[in-house]
Design brief:
alpha/beta, Transcription Regulator spoIIAA, 6-stranded mixed sheet, 5-stranded mixed sheet, globular, binds fe (ii) ion
Amino acid sequence: MNIVNTQINIGASIPFRLLHIGDTHLTLADRRENERKLKLAAERSRHFNNAELYLSEAERYARENNLVIVHTGDLIDFVSEANLDRARKFTVENDVFFAAGNHEFSLYVGEAFEDAEYRNQSLAHVQKSFKNDIRFAARKINGINLVAIDNSYYRFEKPQLEALLAEIALGLPIILFFHVPLFEPALYKISMERNECAYLTSTPEELMNSYSEYRYRQQKADDITLETTELIKTEPLIKAIFTGHLHYDYEGMLTDTLRQYVTGIGTGRVIEIS
Ligand SMILES: [Fe+2]
């Protein structure tokens, strides 16, 4: 695991550190699964063959340094009993604060258009392996409000916007954690050089002209998503954003004052908060 240090000075009553990781993509499956899932596991494990190594290294590092682990989703690559058992071990044996990624609800990877209906086929079952609500959660440490939101289908939803407003009303400095980064021009450019689309939330429509119809439909922001994005960009209590999904490290400015970080596969980002 590659350790990256990030310092943010946002008024903690006592300085503290977190370990941010994401996109582990566990690909475990055993005899409890059907043939189709076993085949999927064999195929997908080739892409993510260091998943267990990176996860256990992060667990050890957090234990040795007494750190809360924040994971911003795609801990599992697809829903399987063995993956959920490992997820439970992760959340039981460590102090984990978690936001879901798109793969948390993948029954078979890329089999269907992923929307709330698809997610709800597995949400209750997946949730059982985690201690906090994986779609929205808040946790206060030393006067800082850590807020985790599942935006993994490129959308924020109304209950999440309302819950975020309720957290803002508490008046504490906020650090946001979610899976899919928000659009910013520099990150869009980097993403488009690597892929056929940028895989970002709230990308302006005119910058999605080259997207396939599927990616456009998947990533086009709806009104609540745009409203939530605007709130995030303008609310002075929101001090920093930590995300994943892209699988590489990135650090940029979402606005003149708001920094957004992406933590990639194999990276453990130690966030020092003061
Ligand atoms: Fe993802």
